[in-house]
Design brief:
With 212 residues, this protein is α+β, with helices and mostly antiparallel strands. It has helices at residues 11-22, 42-47, 71-82, 92-122, 129-153, 167-179, 188-198, 201-206, and strands at residues 2-5, 27-30, 55-59, 65-69. α1 (11-22) runs parallel beside α3 (71-82), α4 (92-122) runs parallel beside α6 (167-179) and α5 (129-153) packs across α7.
Length: 212
């Protein structure tokens, strides 16, 4: 059975749980990190030297065990192994069009979304208001870019008319963006995309939850 280490409130763990649900995989999730601790335990560090979540163990095709960390890498692995032709487009060009949005979510959206999360949720007492305002403006520009992409392509999802790996990281961030108490630009294509994601049981179960 697939094992997933990490607390359910972690956005990075949510990516993996949502992907596993889309793929119909049976799994065991072990609470770890945050209030559960355990990330400094030697046994866990042997699996993930970073001491972060998530980490997975999966039975390999040769009878061994695949141990993997980094949420985007885990989503790619699960999709490639269990979702070829669905979450994992078989055509390399189509897959690259999906894959690029995973990197975009990590490098363009991620830093500003993290600043907002820490300021609104994790440590509001020590929030840097100036940094949060800058992060909100930058995140709004990034979300506007995705809204424009969806408008230009007319696609239901990030890389086509079906859900792929490209939707998962940005889709997890979008739920948080819509939950933060701030003014947001009117982005109708982004809102319609969120409505489509919200119709998926895995998204409702694992992503549309309290941030902490």
């Amino acid at each position: 059975m697939l094992k997933i280490w990490g607390r359910a409130s972690s956005v990075n763990v949510q990516k993996v749980l949502w992907a596993a649900e889309e793929l119909g995989l049976a799994y065991e999730r072990i609470d770890l990190g945050g209030p559960f601790g355990g990330t400094d335990d030697p046994a866990y560090r042997a699996k993930n030297p970073n001491g972060l979540v998530p980490t997975i163990e999966d039975d390999g095709p040769d009878g061994g065990t695949v141990v993997l960390w980094e949420s985007n890498a885990i989503v790619r692995y699960l999709a490639a192994r269990y979702g070829s032709g669905s979450l994992w487009p078989e055509d390399p060009a189509a897959r690259a069009l999906s894959d690029r949005w995973m990197d975009w979510a990590l490098t363009v959206l991620g830093p500003d979304m993290r600043t907002l999360f820490w300021g609104f949720v994790r440590d509001p007492v020590h929030a840097d208001v100036g940094a949060m305002l800058r992060a909100a403006d930058a995140a709004a520009r990034a979300w506007s870019l995705l809204d424009a992409h969806l408008a230009a392509t007319g696609q239901d999802f990030i890389a086509g008319d079906a859900l792929t790996i490209g939707d998962i990281p940005a889709g997890c961030f979008l739920q948080r963006w819509l939950s933060f108490p701030l003014d947001r630009p009117d982005l109708p294509r982004l809102a319609a995309w969120h409505e489509r994601l919200a119709q998926r049981p895995g998204y409702r179960r694992h992503v549309m939850v309290r941030m902490e």
